[in-house]
Amino acid sequence: MTQPDNPFTAPGGPTPPVPGNLPAAAPVPQYTYGAPLYDLPPLRSASGLGMASLVLACVWTAVQVMHLALAPQSAEALRAAGEAGLSAFNSQFTGYDGVSIVLFALQVACYVVSCVWLYRSRSTARAANPSFVHERSAAWTWLGWWVPIVSYWFPYQVVRDIRRATATATAPVSGIGGWWAAWLVFFFAYNVAGRMGSSTTPTVTQAAADLLVPVEAVATVAMIVALVLWIRIVRDITRAQAERIAATSATQY
């Protein structure tokens, strides 16, 4: 005859943990601006967008060179307006002004394509290197270029972190600081040249006529330097992405 189960005996199975001696909690996943490691984007190349960004940047630079070539025409028109007692708004419309309109359209196109490339490249960098914490969130790949004040350094940080997170042993990080310095020189010189065409007094208009060509020359040289370094940066990031994707594919098969 079997003995009945003792109601005071602990049930079968593993002994429950004693309070004060609980097992260690599972490690908390790392986050990069609110995205946990288990919710990472797919690892994919953005080389097509990178190439489109480079093509538009080259076209923009070529048109900027044309802008410089036509700057003397605008300078003469400004000088004539100043001598006649008129403002820059009343100066003759020249080919320089027409190219300015084309430049604006190219700037918008470059902004859109380059920002889409940066956004997708950042996603690829996060997928390839989840532990790397980007200093700026993904939204700044778009906002950083035109938000006042922060536009002087946020885009540099975005590109720098994408490059660092994607870098491999065969793709060293370099040239980003020089690219950003050249871009800032172009940015300031280009905006100064643009304001010369909005002079409201004859005296300022004549002064603008003397300074327009030198300022445009500074802007053009800086943009050429920035273009050369930008090509290098985009190619380095694209190559590093390809190496990361190839390494990931090799481990899966």
What does this structure look like?
The chain is mainly α and 253 residues long. The protein is 63% helix and 2% strand. The longest helix is centred in the C-terminal third of the chain and has 51 residues, at 202-252. The protein is elongated and about 75 Å long.
Helix content: 55-70%
Would you list the SSEs in sequence order as H and E?
EEHHHHHH
Number of helices: 6
Biggest β-sheet: count, sense, barrel? 2 strands, antiparallel
Could you say which structural class the secondary elements and strand pairing correspond to? mainly alpha
Give the CA-based shape.
elongated
Rg value: 29 Å
- Fraction of residues in β-strands: under 5%
What's the β-strand tally?
Answer: 2
What low-confidence regions span 5 or more consecutive residues with pLDDT below 50?
22-35
Distance between the termini: 61 Å
How many structural domains in the coordinates?
1
Instruction: Report strand order across the widest sheet.
Output: 1-2
* Mean residue pLDDT: 85
